[in-house]
Design goal:
The chain is mostly beta strands and 302 residues long. It is built from one helix and 23 strands. The longest helix is centred in the middle third of the chain and has 8 residues. The chain is elongated and about 80 Å long.
Length: 302
């Protein structure tokens, strides 16, 4: 996933408490600015994912700099603090010798179709530094809900699956409107070119700021029950994660599309493990697979 509009979510917040009056304060000549004038993120909140609005100092410090910001909704449908987004703290301390700090926030998602919302973050005070001319960042929370039908439309249809063991044609279809999985999951039919297997269910989401689609294949998934295999007997076919190290009983494989939503490359392979009917634990594994795809990619059939 591209994050060219923000710092990576793992950027550390250096500290979130203001200095006491007795603490040292920078006395060198430095200036603090917002690093970016605009930031665009999807309004949907993913657990554990926070965004950072970077602050930068110019010059060398001999003590900490404490920066305070204010937020304000802008536009016809302004973003409202604690309703559409949550700021971790409006004060950040940049220690002596450091040049970068950040204001951390996360959006608060909803399932409503609405206009994109915006708010500004403005530096209003800086103990130990002058405030520069670039003191405001405009944050846009892009509503992905109205973009989902278009993204899903690009996803539905025929795809060519490619693996290290050959290729096959498959189909991605949507869940019907009114189904709780509508706009949340999709169905992949004919995996490995085997039409007798059940559909593989993929989690479907959209990075509204880039237009890229994310697919996640959670495993295990039961693809068939009670199939008779020559020389082996009756078995259930269970979709399992696979890589160069072998098969695993559980896991997930994910892929992010290109911007045109015509290509997916999954970060882990998969296989159809054969299990004693009804026993899908390690003890039920029969030591064979119905198919194996150490690598897996999808290309839209035009």
């Amino acid at each position: 996933m591209k994050f060219n509009k923000i710092f990576a979510a793992a950027l550390a917040i250096l500290t979130m408490t203001a200095c006491d009056d007795d603490d040292p304060v920078n006395t060198a000549d430095v200036t603090v600015n917002m690093q970016q004038t605009t930031i665009t993120v999807a309004e949907d909140f993913s657990t554990g994912v926070y965004y950072n609005i970077p602050l930068v100092l110019s010059g060398e410090t001999n003590g900490p700099v404490t920066v305070t910001v204010e937020v304000e909704g802008v536009g016809a449908s302004p973003a409202i603090e604690d309703e559409n987004y949550v700021i971790t703290s409006k004060t950040v301390v940049i220690p002596a010798g450091e040049t970068v700090g950040a204001i951390e926030f996360h959006p608060s998602s909803n399932d409503d179709i609405n206009d994109d919302r915006q708010f500004t973050v403005t530096i209003v005070a800086a103990a130990g530094a002058k405030i520069g001319s670039n003191k405001t960042t405009l944050v846009t929370l892009v509503d992905e809900d109205h973009l989902l039908p278009e993204a899903l439309g690009k996803l539905v249809g025929s795809w060519s699956g490619s693996t290290t063991r050959g290729s096959f044609t498959c189909t991605i279809s949507e869940f019907p409107e009114g189904d709780p999985n509508h706009f949340k999951k999709v169905k992949l039919s004919n995996i490995a070119g085997l039409s007798y297997l059940n559909d593989v269910i993929l989690d479907f989401s959209l990075d509204a700021s880039t237009g890229q689609v994310i697919l996640i294949m959670d495993m295990p998934q039961v693809l068939a029950e009670g199939i008779t295999f020559t020389g082996l007997g009756t078995a259930d076919v269970v979709l399992l994660p696979m890589d160069a190290g072998g098969l695993y009983l559980s896991g997930a494989s994910s892929a992010i599309s290109n911007e045109e939503v015509t290509q997916f490359v999954f970060d882990m392979g998969c296989a159809g493990g054969l299990f004693t009917p009804g026993n899908h634990t390690a003890g039920g594994f029969m030591g064979s697979v119905n198919f194996q795809m150490p690598s897996f990619s999808l290309t839209k059939v035009q």
